[in-house]
Each structure stands twice: as structure tokens, then as C-alpha cells.
Amino acid sequence: MKRKMLALVMAFVLLMLQVPVSANVSSEAPFPADVIQSEAIELVNIALDQGVVPGQDSSEITSLYLSDSIPIYELLADNTFTEADNIKYYGIFDQNDVARGLLIARIQGDDETLTCEYNTFFCEELTEYKQSDAEICFIFAQTEVTIFDGRQNQTVMQSATLHDDSRGVFGAETARTSQLKSLNRSVISSMTELNLVSTAATNSTVSGSVSVPLVAQAPWDNGCWAACAVSVGSYLKPSVHLTVTNIMNDYANGKDDAKSYNTIQDVLAYEYGCETTQHVFSTLNMGTVMDNIGVGTNKGNPIIARVSYKGLVEGHFIVVRGYVYTAGTGTLDRATIMDPADDSGVRILTVTGTGRSMTFKYTPVTNSDPRDVGLYITIAK
Predict the structure, then answer these.
(1) What's the chain's average pLDDT?
(2) Full residue range of the structural domain in which residue 48 is found
């Protein structure tokens, strides 16, 4: 009898070993579906409250949906591909399959914390691929993001802010490789409806935002400083109409040159009549963000911040335009920025830490490594 029972147990074990493990369960393990959905609901509702979801002003949106994750690959320096394992993209679409944003989920830090952000990048391209049922994947190269649909590559972002020396340069040779053709692609599917509710301030939560306009640095690779100056200046003095090219011509002699915070202060002073204060070698915490932006809509002033990469040699200017802060816990608060990279976009980032002293950090859309703010500029009240 014991032998018979042992044989049955062994047969069951062998049978279980032959059952294939679901690829979705394995690959999604660090990204639990319920957590991703919960984060998407909170971030999208913050975006709606701050008025930054594309198309929301025209009453075109009656419902919003979260897609399954879209495959992402990294092009390595040796011209081979590897699937990204610490970052995922999820599209956010309305009832007509029009993209209204992108959710990025990341595994960050030594403790492998899951953080998420909402942004408005790639909406036009995602709409096109969703409505045509194309099978796609994202590819991260050294300084660019491309989308591959099995036939051609479309570059959707190119910026020095994405620079990663571990990645290769996407070129004609890469496009011809047979490995590219073998990458896993998928249609944008499995739409989960998101519950749209107001995230207005409660007794424990405060929030604020300022309506700085989106200003793209493109076609200037090093024009982030000018784009931030124009964005903030246009918010403070809407009667002044200047472009990034105007500023690049007048303050960089028409050259695609990076400039320092001093030049941004000069632009705001001479072109917009705004007095500013520089905070050099200073980190940016949530308390400073809250004090400058204020509570409510357009009750305060934005902050221009410089994030550093490659040490302090190179950096990228952004505009901090909003926040959501929960008193007491303060472990997963949000900061909203205008990012002028490439064609520009609004991003709602997760800020980790405790209390008003938690430090704001910037993470490029193609990786999970947060970058510090080394200096920032505030507007005189």
C-alpha cells in the first residue's frame, strides 16, 4: 500500500514538473497587476485634477482604460538585444482607443521598490498603433526610444537626457539584424477600465499646481534651459510671446549650446521682468515645492530645477509645476513636472521618503536610476 501511495505521489510530482509555468505570471511578478492598476487610478486622477490629460478640456473623454504592458527591449553596446526587466510601459486609452497618457512602472533601489509615473509622451504614436492593431515593442538605445512594428522602426524620442553608455546606437546596421526581427511584439490589448474619481485635497492630503505651458526644446538638443525659461516666463507674463528659437538666437548666438542657471535668470529678468533666486548645490525637497507652488490651482510659482547626469558635468533643466502630499505618511507622494525633452510632456513622478524633507529626484523615461537635483531657481513672491 505504501509503495502504491509513493508511486502516486511521484507521478503527481512528475506531472507538476511537466506543467509549463505561465510566462505572464513569471515576468509580471515584480509588477503585481493589482498594484499597477491602483497606481494607475491614483495617478490618472491626479492628472485629471491638475488638467494635464490630453483632450480633457474638450470633453472628449468619458472613460479611461489601462492596457497590458508593452514589450520593451534594450539595445546593448555590443549590438544585441535584451528584454528590460526593471521597467514596464502601459498605455492609457479612452473609449475611442485614443491614447491619453503612458504609465511607467519601475523597480528602483537596493530594496527594489516599485514606483510608477504618469506622463503624456508618445500619445500620437500609441493611438496609431492601437487603432491599427499593430504588434509593437519599444526599444531603448543610447539616446533614443524607438518603436518597432515588425516592418519599420519609428524614433519617438531622441534626447541627451536618455544617455546610457551601456546601450548601443540605433542605426542602419541595427535595423538590418535578424535579431531585431525576432523580438517579441504584441498588440496593445487587455484594457482594464480605470475608476475616475476626484483626488481633491482632504484633511490629510494637500495638493497644488500651476498651469505652466508645455514648451519643447526640440529641435535644439541643448535647449532645455531656454524651453524652461519660456515656459515659466509665459506663465508669469502671458503678454510676452517668445519662442525657444528666439531665446537661443539672443542668448546663445543661434548656437545649440547648453547654458547655466545664470542665463535662465537673465532671460526671466530681461524678457519677462521676473526676479528670481538661485539655490546652488541644493537638493529640492517636498517642503520647498509646496511652499512655492502653494495649495490649489495657480496660487503660487513654479520652480526650475537642474538634474545632473554624468556627475555634475552634464544636466537637464525641468519645471516643477505641481504636487500631491499626504501628511503623516508621506512615503509615496507625487511631484508634477514639465519636461521639455524632445517634444516635451507632463510627468507625474513618485517621490519617496518621509515628510516635507523627502527629496525630489528625476528619472529618465528609459531607465530606473533616479538623478539628483543639484540646483534650482525660485521666483520672488
Answers:
(1) 87
(2) 31-194
